[in-house]
Each structure stands twice: as structure tokens, then as C-alpha cells.
Amino acid sequence: MGYAVQLARSLVFIVQMYLAMVALAIVFTPMVFVHRDYAARACHTYCRWVRWSAGWIVGLRTEVRGQVPEGAVLVAAKHQSFLDILMIYGALPRPRFIMKKQLVYAPILGWYALKVGCIPVDRGKRGAAVREMLARVEAGSEEPGQLIIYPQGTRVAPGAYLPYKVGTAVLYQELGQDCVPVATNVGVFWPRHGFYRKPGLAVVEFLDPIPAGQAPRAFMAELERVIETNSDRLMAEAGFGTEGESA
Prior knowledge:
By secondary structure, this protein is α/β, with parallel strands linked by helices. It is built from 7 helices and 7 strands; from the N terminus they run ααββαβαβαβαββα.
């Protein structure tokens, strides 16, 4: 398939993706006012739609591998593009993100993020935000679920390196829960910037949990090792770094 044709398909995909977001918001918002659980249903529906439409419009198939956690755990994930957010959220039963406070003001996304229990924080104040969330859980106002954080703090392009932030270790200690690392190769097909979407198989993989109770330094070293090693493996599987790169 030629580049121009794939680019045109990519633009069609992106337009319909945002139109679907608006349409689902219109349909679900009245129900969200009745019960906030409908916000999670709307978000899961949107995740399924984007994954399905990516397959038939741009030839980008998606696969979630590994044991998806169902109980209360910390999920620490590699972040390469918007797609890994959708795949991780769509796979988990009760997910909520630690997210940048500025995202609260994003149209539709910000309001729904708050309704599903995401925690907006200022940079450097994650520990206080988690203590607030734990207080709400103990008070019975929220059910425990899977708290998702991106240890590098932002999207990182395939092949690039950004240090892992100590805030993840703070959360790990505060929660006293196992941590499930998540690797991905989605950035090979769906980059941080631009409109072009490559065909292929984008994968998000839930890895073996890191048990609660490790020392912060040991935990961070293990977390970075397993996420980076397995993300490199998935990217290599997708053809990243080889001549005539990719899928």
C-alpha cells in the first residue's frame, strides 16, 4: 500500500475517532449524571471502538497479552502514544490514571476522566494525591481498582530514553500493593506526533507482578529493567530498528 493511500486512511481514521468520541459523549452523558459507572462504560466502549476501527481502516491490529490484573494493584506502564492509554484502560476492569492536572480542562476527556476516578496532580505532588485517594477508598466512596501511572511521566518515542521518575516508588510504598509492569510497542505504529498510522500488530503486555514491600531503589531498578527489556522485545518483534523499519 502506498504512503499517500495509507496517509489518507490515517486521516479518515483520526477524524472518525474524534467524531465517535463526541457521539458517545452525547449518548452517555445523561446516564453519567444518573450514575458515574456509566462513565466507565462509555470509556470502555470508546476503547473498543478505536481498536476495532483502527484494524479495518488503517490495518492496525491490537493485542493485549499477559495476565490482566483484576484486583487492587499499581500498574506502571510504558507510554508511547494515545493508543497505549486506550488499550490499557480497555483491558482493566476498574482502571484510574494518575494524570497531569492540565488534562482536566481537555474537552470531554477531562470531565470523563474525573468521573471514572482519575487523579489529577501537579508535578511533584503525586504522594499527596494518592493519600487523598486512599482516604476516599477507606471512606467507601470509591471501590479499589487498578491505579495506572506512567513512570517516565510522558510519552517516549521508540528508541528514545527518558529516566524513570521516583514518584512511582512513592506510590508503590504508599499503596503497599503489588506493581504490575506493562510493556508496549504501540509507538512503532502510532507515533507521539503526526497523522500517519502504520499497519501491523500493536501490543500491550502485562508482565509478572513485582511484589509489594521492596526497597524503593531496588523496586525502581527492577521496574525499569523489565519494562524496557520487554518493550524492546516487542518493538523488535514489530520490526523496529531493522532495515525497512516496520510492520
